[in-house]
Amino acid sequence: MLNSLGFKATEKVVNSGVYFTTIGAPTLKPQVGWGDWVQDFPHPWDFMQLFAGNAGSSLNYGYVKDAHYDSTLNTLYQTDPKTVASQWSALDNYAIGKAYYAAFGHFEFPKFYSNRLNFSAGVMSVEYQTDMTSLQLK
């Protein structure tokens, strides 16, 4: 598909142990790569700082250098994210509009539990799903 669009693309299968440093290496000039993250920390900076100009070449896969993005990111990081949620959202929309990254959504997994469980004791995590050790019978 990329070749039909005018790119000179070749497939290169990369070992998972070096994948992220490979797609982040500017000397290799990768045309496309896939990086996905889960919300392991409940703060937008955790993901968005990867596209800051000072993130380093192995993290900033799009080689983004944007003074507006960087300054807004640094300002918002200094503030409680709950009080500036709309500004974080605006920065995210800005980055998507500039094609620094593409948002594809978040996985949702159905969960089926017995009514015999004490639901208030269970720990659910966006990243790790159900903490099976926290489930308790009523």
Task: Tell me what the structure shows.
The protein has 138 residues and is mostly helical. It is 24% helix and 3% strand. The chain contains four helices and two strands. It has a two-stranded antiparallel sheet. A hairpin with a 3-residue loop joins strand 1 (124-125) and strand 2 (129-130). Helix 3 runs antiparallel to helix 4. It is extended. The mean pLDDT is 82.
Overall number of strands: 2
* Shape summary: extended
Radius of gyration: 19 Å
End-to-end gap? 55 Å
- Please state the structural category: mainly alpha
Q: What is the succession of H and E elements?
A: HHHHEE
Largest sheet: 2 strands, antiparallel
DSSP strand content: under 5%
List the strand order in the largest sheet. 1-2
Please tell me the overall pLDDT. 82
Helix fraction by DSSP (H/I, runs of at least 4) = 10-25%
Individual helix count: 4
Oligomer: single chain
Unreliable parts: none
Keywords:
single chain; 24% helix; mainly alpha
Summarize the structure.
It is built from four helices and two strands, in the order H-H-H-H-E-E. It has 138 residues and is mainly alpha-helical. Strands 1-2 form a two-stranded antiparallel sheet.
Helices and strands in order:
Layout: H1 19-23, H2 45-48, H3 67-77, H4 85-97, E1 124-125, E2 129-130
Antiparallel strand pairs: 1-2
